[in-house]
Amino acid sequence: MFNQADTVITIETDAGITGIGEGGFPDALKQCAGRLIGQDPQHIEHLWQDMSRSFFYPPGREKEDALGAMDLALWDIRGKVLKLPVHQILGGTTRNYCECYNTGGVVPGIKPGMSLKERAAATIEAGYRAFRMGAADTPANTTYNTREKLNQLHDECVQVRDGVGKNGDFCIDFHQRFDLSDAVRGCDLIESLAPFFVEDPVRAEAFVEDLPKLRKLVKVPIAAGEEWGNRWDFNGLVENHDIDYVRATLPNVGGITEMMKIAAICETHFVGIVPHFTGPIATAALVNSLGTFSGPLLMEYGWAGRETPHLPVCLDFKNGKLYPNERPGLGVELDMSKLTQIMEVTRYDTNRAQTYFRPDGSITNW
């Protein structure tokens, strides 16, 4: 759907157990994978620190994505060794299912030519928690006049509110299309329509400065973070309640290991999580990890009605909801015959890495 890696990765062990992960591009994957050869896969936190801290430059977001893909596979191995689903290893689920909203999937009852109001009503009827819409979406490579589009945005939100009903929910993605002044006006225009949240209201390049300013000026709930990296991108904004929902992405934040730390920060400050969806394996990992999060959770789902031939067993989705399962690890099964191999890493690769340790053996920056 966009320029995000859908690479499938496997980590093979000498015990005959294979872990499955997803994400990352070859160069970054090779560096991370090279650090794992010959290591004990049970030491997931230690391996995360090694992949993150062993190189001269700290990992950027593309490297975090690759590191996260490896981390998913390590957790899959852990679950298979213990014959438990990952959510049980993390303490067990806190909910019966994960509520969802649809992005890109097939929703029963929606047909071509339907109005926004009709599509919104059909989505809620299909069991989804909320209807998701863009900010006056325009075909790609055309002109987007923000002043004109803000008025259209308001009119379309009126239709959607009618569609979901008085007690229904809808969320709107501003897609970072607006500068701060336009974002303020857009939020104010739809405040009375009570959106569940407004996503990415300001430019990604200025989120650290502009989101706190926006928070002081508008009353609608704000969600952001699908393009960010590890916990340090989220920490200050969550602590100061500058956002109401974190849009953290697996594996981009650095995998389950890092996602659970982000979740702990959110729980501490009573901020909800609406994770950004990526591939189906990462979605299975989200159900396993954030299914254990005690705060408000809403999952973005895009795989309804879409085929994934390489995954004969993956997600348990029904009537707008994702359900946990008791299959070991991430609960996915892989058909390698449907994939094309692009790389194999078989040797320990220091890649000029320099690792330093504290006296107790824990890793520190070199």
Features:
366 residues; alpha/beta; Enolase-like, domain 1; TIM Barrel; 2 domains; 6-stranded parallel beta sheet; 11 helices; 14 strands
In short:
By secondary structure, the protein is an alpha/beta fold. The protein has helices at residues 26-34, 44-53, 61-82, 86-89, 116-125, 146-164, 180-190, 207-217, 231-239, 256-268, 280-290, and strands spanning 8-12, 18-22, 98-102, 130-134, 169-173, 197-199, 222-224, 245-246, 272-273, 299-301, 317-318, 321-322, 356-357, 363-364. The strands form four sheets. The protein has a six-stranded parallel beta sheet with strand order 4-5-6-7-8-9. It has a four-stranded mixed beta sheet with strand order 10-3-12-11, with no helix packed on it. A two-stranded antiparallel ribbon has the order 1-2.
Question: What does the model show?
Answer:
It is a single chain. The chain has two domains: 108 residues, Enolase-like, domain 1; 236 residues, Alpha-Beta Barrel (TIM Barrel). The chain has eleven helices and 14 strands. Helix 2 packs antiparallel against helix 3 and helix 9 packs parallel to helix 10. It is globular, with a radius of gyration of 21 Å. The model has no long low-confidence stretch (mean pLDDT 94).
Span between termini: 38 Å
Helix content: 25-40%
CATH class of the largest domain: Alpha Beta
In the sheet with the most strands, the strands line up as 4-5-6-7-8-9
In the CATH hierarchy, the third-tier topology of the largest domain is known as TIM Barrel
Q: What's the architecture of the largest domain, going by CATH?
A: Alpha-Beta Barrel
What does the main sheet amount to? 6 strands, parallel
Q: Output the number of helix runs.
A: 11
| Shape annotation | globular
Number of domains: 2
Computed structural class: alpha/beta
Radius of gyration: 21 Å
